[in-house]
Amino acid sequence: MATIQAFDFAVKKDALHKTKLIEKSYSNSLAPNQVLLEVDTFSLTSNNITYAVMGEQMHYWRFFPTEQSYGIIPAWGFADVVVSSHPDIKVGQRFYGYYPMGSHLLVAPNKVGPHGFMDSMGHRRELPVVYNFYANTAQDPTMSPQTEAFVALFRPLFVTSFLIDHHLAVQNFYNADQILITSASSKTAQALAFSLANRKKEQGSNFSLVGLTSNKNLEFVRQLGWYDETLPYNGLNQLKPKEKFVVVDFTGNHNTQYALQTTLGENLVYNCLVGLADWQHLKGEQPLPTKGELFFAPSHAEKWQKVWGISGFQQQVGWAWQRFIVPIQSAISITEHEGVQELEKLYLTMLKGNIDPTQGNMVHLR
Fold it and tell me: Whole-structure pTM over 0.90, yes or no?
C-alpha cells in the first residue's frame, strides 16, 4: 500500500519561539468518504500569532492535534484534493479554508454541496462551525489566481471586522462621539475602518473615527484615508476625554488599555477586546480599572447565521467583501515565502512584533 509523506510545522505551547517539524504519512487508500488535501499556500498575519497565544484558552490547538506539548497554528489558505474516497469530491478540486501550517490535511466531508463542505472529523465536531467549512474555489466568483492571496490574507479578518461593524450598528454605536481603533495598521483594523468609514458616508453617522498606531506606521494609516484622525500611542493627550468613546482594541497591550481606561474614565462606554497583536505585553504593574468585553467572532457569526441563514450570511459578507477587495489591492504588496525555513524565519519575526503593514505574507511549503 503506497504512502504519502507529509509534515506539520509545530510550536511548543508554553514556549512559542521553539518550533519543530513533525513528519508523518498518509495511506493513499482512505477510509470511506475521507479526503486528503495537499496544502498549496496560506497567509501569515498577526492573527495567527493570536491563535498561538490563545491556543489553549480558545481551543485553537484542538483543530489539528499533534504531539503532546506542541501545537499546530491554524492558517487560512488553499489546498488541492490529492486523494478522495468521497463520491462528490474529486481529485484536483481546490478548496479555501482553515488549514494546519503543514503539507496536508485529512478531512471527513459532510454536507457536501456545490459551494463546499463541512469537515466532520470527530475532534472538530464541537468546534465553531465557521472554522470547519471549506469553500470550493471554482464556485466562488470572488476567487481567482489574482485575488487568492488577498482572500487568504484578509477574508477571515474581514469577517471579524464585518461582525464588529454590525454589532456596533445594532447598538447605535453606543451613542459614542468617537470610535477609537488600536493597532490601526493591522489588517483586521484596516477592514473595520473601511466598513465604518463607508457606514459614516452612506448613513450619515456622526461619530469620529480615530486610529491609534505606532510612530513608524502613522503615515501608512493616514494614507489609507479611512480614519478621521490618526494618533501615535504616546499621543493620547490629544483625545477629547469629555466625549463618549468606543474602543476597539486589537493589541491586547496592558499599558495601552490602562492609559485609555484612565484617560477616558466613565466616557469609555464600550471597550471591545478583539486581538492580541502585542502579546508580549498582556500584563502590567497597574491593575486595569475595569474590564472590557471579549469579542468572540464565531459566536457573533452563529447569531447572524440564525437571522439570515448560512447562505444569507455568506451572501452579506460576500457583498461587503467585494467592496473592500478593490481598494486594499492598491494598499498592500504581496510577499511570497517558499519552504519551511522561510516560514520559520517569518513566524519568529512576527512573533517579536515586527510586522510591516504594507506587506501581505503568503507561504508555500510544496
Answer: no
CB 281 within 8 A of CB 254: yes
Name the maximum alpha-carbon separation found in the chain: 72
pLDDT score of 298: 84
| Average pLDDT of the chain to the nearest whole number | 92
CB 342 within 8 A of CB 363: yes
Q: How far is it, in rounded angstroms, from Cα 330 to Cα 141?
A: 20
Three-class DSSP labels, the chain? CCEEEEEEEEEECCEEEEEEEEEEEEECCCCCCCEEEEEEEEEECHHHHHHHHCCCCCCHHHCCCCCCCEECCEEEEEEEEEEECCCCCCCCCEEEEEEECECEEEECEEEEECCEEEECCHHHCCCCHHHCEEEEHHHCCCCCCCCHHHHHHHHHHHHHHHHHHHHHHHCHHHHCCEEEECCCCCHHHHHHHHHHHHHHHHHCCCCEEEEEECHHHHHHHHHHCCCCEEEEHHHHHHCCCCCCEEEEECCCCHHHHHHHHHHHHHHEEEEEECCCCCHHHCCCCCCCCCCCEECCHHHHHHHHHHHHCHHHHHHHHHHHHHHHHHHHHHHCEEEEEEHHHHHHHHHHHHHCCCCCCCEEEEEECC
- For residue 285 the three cell numbers come to 504593574
Residues 6+ apart with CB under 8 A from 97: 76, 77, 79, 116, 133, 134, 135
Pairing type for strands 333-338 and 359-364 reads parallel
Over residues 62-96, the pLDDT tens digits come to 999 999 999 999 999 999 999 999 999 999 999 99
Tell me the residue type at 86: H
Cell of 223: 494614507
